[in-house]
Amino acid sequence: MVVVMKPEATPVETAAVINRAEAVGVATHPIYGKEHTVIALVGDLTKIDRDVFSAMAGVQKTVRIQEPYKLAARSTHANRTTIDVNGVIIGGSDVVVMAGPCSVESREQVLETAWAVKEAGATILRGGAFKPRTSPYSFQGMGEAGLKILAEAREQTGLPVITEVMTVETVDMVCEYADILQIGARNMQNYGLLHAVGKARKPVMLKRGISGEIKELLMCAEYILSGGNAQVMLCERGIRTYETSTRNTFDLNAVPVLHRMSHLPVVADPSHGTGDWELVGPMSKAAVAAGADALILEVHPNPEQAESDGAQSLKPENFAELMGQLRLIASAVGRSIATSPEPAPANGRAQDVMLV
Amino acid sequence: MVVVMKPEATPVETAAVINRAEAVGVATHPIYGKEHTVIALVGDLTKIDRDVFSAMAGVQKTVRIQEPYKLAARSTHANRTTIDVNGVIIGGSDVVVMAGPCSVESREQVLETAWAVKEAGATILRGGAFKPRTSPYSFQGMGEAGLKILAEAREQTGLPVITEVMTVETVDMVCEYADILQIGARNMQNYGLLHAVGKARKPVMLKRGISGEIKELLMCAEYILSGGNAQVMLCERGIRTYETSTRNTFDLNAVPVLHRMSHLPVVADPSHGTGDWELVGPMSKAAVAAGADALILEVHPNPEQAESDGAQSLKPENFAELMGQLRLIASAVGRSIATSPEPAPANGRAQDVMLV
Amino acid sequence: MVVVMKPEATPVETAAVINRAEAVGVATHPIYGKEHTVIALVGDLTKIDRDVFSAMAGVQKTVRIQEPYKLAARSTHANRTTIDVNGVIIGGSDVVVMAGPCSVESREQVLETAWAVKEAGATILRGGAFKPRTSPYSFQGMGEAGLKILAEAREQTGLPVITEVMTVETVDMVCEYADILQIGARNMQNYGLLHAVGKARKPVMLKRGISGEIKELLMCAEYILSGGNAQVMLCERGIRTYETSTRNTFDLNAVPVLHRMSHLPVVADPSHGTGDWELVGPMSKAAVAAGADALILEVHPNPEQAESDGAQSLKPENFAELMGQLRLIASAVGRSIATSPEPAPANGRAQDVMLV
Amino acid sequence: MVVVMKPEATPVETAAVINRAEAVGVATHPIYGKEHTVIALVGDLTKIDRDVFSAMAGVQKTVRIQEPYKLAARSTHANRTTIDVNGVIIGGSDVVVMAGPCSVESREQVLETAWAVKEAGATILRGGAFKPRTSPYSFQGMGEAGLKILAEAREQTGLPVITEVMTVETVDMVCEYADILQIGARNMQNYGLLHAVGKARKPVMLKRGISGEIKELLMCAEYILSGGNAQVMLCERGIRTYETSTRNTFDLNAVPVLHRMSHLPVVADPSHGTGDWELVGPMSKAAVAAGADALILEVHPNPEQAESDGAQSLKPENFAELMGQLRLIASAVGRSIATSPEPAPANGRAQDVMLV
User: 0.80 exceeded by the pTM?
Assistant: First the structure.
């Protein structure tokens, strides 16, 4: 850290900063410029809050040199992290596509969609049983009944399941049914929840909050990693800016930035990122071109009837077409779209689902 | 709601929108413009998600006419809500000042601060026992031990206590000790928590998230109100913008905007809003001038030693000076700074506290 | 400046940075931390662009210690700047109120408004003859004819005139008629124009761009100051954020921040800042409470007929009422609202104006 | 347009709105909801400012249905616009790459770079002779001498030249030397300049301002188009958000959004968009995948010596490598990277340039 003193700071104030740092075993290197004195601090700064110096008399500002996360930082890990989800590898050379409905609405809807996305080439099934909704009057999700439907879809199709966990008290329940725990954007900084999934033995996909800085996302990953769970992937899903022609501003720059700053796999969510199904195609291709390790996409057999997020859901036929295009883009950047590690169960698509 | 069709929308697509709306008992008024057909929907739209129409073929956009919150809206309440906290009235003609440390760090620190802010004229004591911290390596708060210290400070000084509740499972515990439950900015959209405090029988101060829109803040208040708790106050505490010369952009405009949109009392938090104690004075005065019903301010006997937020904490002497200035501003807008409904307990400031 | 090397930077790369700095006579102080080497640069850095170091191999980032503006900085001026506009002092102990219509639309409209705001206590008349309009199909201003009307209004009422100059080639013309040159928000970084008004012998009010950082505003002031014009005042008029319930986010924090960073007077423009006349009252009071040296307010005799910005214009009667409230707030912060240095010309409000 | 009345609006206020609209020949369709009356306006609204209604008593808000630009709108043009720049087609099936230094610094630097980017496959040369710089103390560009160097580079290499024009008075001079006029981000809303290039007979590349909304960008294009110049291309170059890990937030979503809203070609500028050469590669590939019609990239033979923007400039060897990757991506989306319409002049790369 570097502490910049005000031009009018007194030698006594400068000395106080130096003493405060040295009191916790941090070495100090004062540099006397023409206008400012600057004090470089070298050593273990975890014992002292940066704010302590900001609050001292004569201090103009403090500048962090080293990022406060360690476990998530690329510099401390020689190799990129890969996460094995029932044989599907996230963060490796292949690009993984996760797809499915925003919300679990019924057994038929989920099974129909699961088969459709599997047939088009997705290798992980997404779907929400607990829904954070802006309005208390909106559909709030099916809860455990929804989780059971997802588990049945996995049994039938062989696709591992990713689903959101929203509260500490449901972490255990969701772990029973899910293969990946999703932490939603609104909960990026829900530290109690981060702590709880840090203790879980399931991979976690952590979504960037709509006003989350990239370094804050990494600090939140650090919460999970420091809890003992090393299977964390990071997800860009759109940030809030002044632009209103898209629901959010899908910040694709985060993909190469995160790859530079961290060893964790990076997932892109163009469905929430743009909020608009017509944009999902171009931005999915862009995400693969920019190096995303996985995509998570909303697909609904009948978006106009969806309980939530219909406007950003692809129809199965559009999704299948997009998968073909993604294979070409992946190949252009020297990767492939991941394929299922094992064939679907022999019995195939159930009869009752065909009727939907 | 108004549904705007694309210029190229077909009559069949327009008819589908009309049928969808009428199927749930909503009346439709199509208007045929030169380029666009526009369909006005009149009736109870709570039965159908706005997204349903956005997802329909031929629809360009939907425009909400009526805000989706009702209980929080000013139009549905003839009178402004006032909240009585042990005799201190928030939302009435007087401006209430809440003050105290960011975090509860020790019994001595809290008692010292409580007496200091009381003597300067504050009528509610603030202090955090559970702290949401960006870094997993930072001080996380004293928990229940901290709540007990706050309760002791209330007993000694007579000041009601406001403190943050962060998780559903600690709502009951916090209710035992606190007089006002604070929902922090990071939890503005933690719907499980909003639901839980909606069931509590304590006033709630709901903070705007750093990327929370004003209408989202009102929707979150609606969650609490619709749960049965009518004692909700709204708090502006700074939003995230591109400007970095202040920690956040304290959006004082929210004060008159919220007063126009809602009947709920509005609290301003210039300490978090600006993140800089030198700005707390001018922005506190501005907040009272703009019509805030209450201020919540961080005061610490020794900001340089604070476990958190030292840079934004006032020293007791600065706070006392500010209180004098606030009385003048309050008077200039035809209000007063609220005074304690009852004198402090006869025994006064305890001897052991004086020594700190 | 501080140059932070990457953890993996080689000694050769570090040496290259040191050599590059020393080549332009800047002293270097390398500090070898556990993970990073940091090089503090001391000396005259104006000879070398910060980007030069950012582009060098092995460099992670550069951190500026000293702000790149000097003439605008408070640290280099013992006293606050005051600006005398025909006897009206801006930046002194009194708060100046400038008022008038957004656009000059007709002689009658301007004279009517000028008399009205003068009678209510304004001491400077505002009005735009050149209008930057988002649409090429909107009213673009009256041009020189409008300037002549403003000059006539000054003659009649004695109020000095502030008006916007939009292009280099009209600077001389506007100087002929105006007492203060306004640089609008869209032109904050129009360097050619800043250079031109830097050569003018008239006071300049520089508005912050809607995405202007406070330090950028000061850099733009530096352009004018370094051109030889020391009579610069800074104006906050709202920034662009994600919040849409106000047209802009009026960033009142800029007032105390600018006072801390600069010696130049600070003007607040709540009319453009909020874009909503109902918010102008509370935010004007807040601006005076926060320490603004002047307000600039839009007043129109008939906002519903205004060619531009009707929604944010006060009616004369609302303006007069607000002036009374502002006097109370100014007094509460130890200031007064400035009064005219001399009485209005004896002939008073012209007959033909009364008829409008 | 739709005018939404306040719940408490009186019949007289509603009638006033209706009368105001009908007075300019606009048809009105009032709809009486349970809480709000809503008035749909149908007809030519260019005769009346939207603000007129916002300012009327009883009006809560106005909602625009039809966008206020016509010439730039996709709905009014059956075919996409293509622009022919000396045989290089922008907006057609091929993706055009423009490349060159940020600033013209010397004849050698420009010629060296021009040959290098041509050899790697670029078909248009970029370079700035007039530089808008944040600091008055920074390098401000070579002016006309720089334009002459660019013209010489065109002669030698056959590459058409794009360069920025910053002021009305230099439009003619820049037209003499340049093949495409660039309007920089800071001048997006410099209406005088837009008007001037609207009269020019050269293609214009209009950059989105760092706080420009997409619909504002289209309104600015409308200024140029309505002036008579139909050869306009739009350029995304990064917007200002709260995220600081990139210099700007390169908003790639703008590419498909602009293609949906407009018939004009779309250019992506990942160099300014990200401000970081390491991100230029991934984001260039992403831009082509998202459908950009052209890229504009900064290349400098020695970024560490660049007068400006060194941190975001590619070295020629990195650029050449990237061009290979871009060809693969273009092919994956069914396009090619444009090649030069004619071979380079027979004499080839001049001897003196080889020596640099």
Answer: yes
